[in-house]
Amino acid sequence: MDPQSAKPERLRAGTYRRYWAALLRRDVPQARDIVRLQLQQLTAQQIYMRLFLPALNLSGVKWAAGEISHRDEHFITYNTLRLMRIVRREMVVENPTGHVVIAAGVAQESHRIGLRMCCDFLQSDNWRIVWLRGTERAVLREAIAEHKPDMLMFSIGMQQGIEPTRRLIQEARRSRFHGTVAVGGRAILENRAIVEAMGADLTADNALQLLRKVKPLFRQT
After folding, report:
1. pLDDT over 90 percentage in the chain
2. ∠ CA 64-70-75 to the nearest 5 degrees?
C-alpha cells in the first residue's frame, strides 16, 4: 500500500488534540473510537502521520514545558502504541518478501515508538523487519551474518547513544556490511551534522520521509 495514496477525506483540524486529550484523561475507549472513525475516512499511513505523530509531538512539547507529568506522557505513548496495532493491520504486508532491514533502538526508552512507525512504513512497502535482540556488537555481527540485511536502522533517543551507535556502524562495516545505514531519533534531530561523522548514510524526520528517501535506493524483487 503506497503511503502517499490518499482518500478524499482529510483529518478534521483538532482531531489529534481530541485524541490526545482523551488519553490524557485516561479515556482509552474514546481514543479508540476516534482511531476507528478515522480508519473509515483516511488511509492507515495518514492516520500515523496526521493523528498519532502530532499527538505524540504534542505530548513532548507539553512535557518539556512542565504542563504534563512523565506518567501522563508515558500513558499517552504506551496507549498510542497499542492503538497503532489496530491501524497497522490495514497497512503492513503480512508476509513480506522484499529487502531486509535490521532495526534497533539505542539509548531509548522501551517503547521505541518512532522506530516502530518507521518499520511499519517499510513493511507496508514489502520490507522484512528484523529487530536486533541487543545492542552489543557481537549481537549485530551475528544478525548480519544470519539475515544478510540490505539496511541497518538505528534510532537514538539520547546523546549518550551517539558513540555506541557509531561503534555499531563501524562493526557492521568490519563485518562486510555494504548496505545503507539510516539513523534517527531525538539525538539525531538535535544534531543532524553528526550523521555523516557517525558513518551513516541518511536520516529522516519521520516514517514517511524515511520511506520516500529509501524507495529510490532499492528495487523490490
Report:
1. 83
2. 120
Which residues, 6 or more positions from 54, have their beta carbon under 8 angstroms from its beta carbon?
Answer: 16
| pTM summary value | 0.90
Q: Which CATH superfamily is domain 100-217 in?
A: Cobalamin-binding domain (3.40.50.280)
Long-range contacts of 89-94 (CB under 8 A, 24+ apart): 90/1, 90/39, 90/43, 90/44, 91/1, 91/43, 91/44, 91/45, 91/48, 91/120, 91/121, 91/123, 91/124, 92/120, 92/123, 92/124, 93/123, 93/124, 93/125, 93/126
Which residues sit opposite 155 in a β-bridge?
105, 184
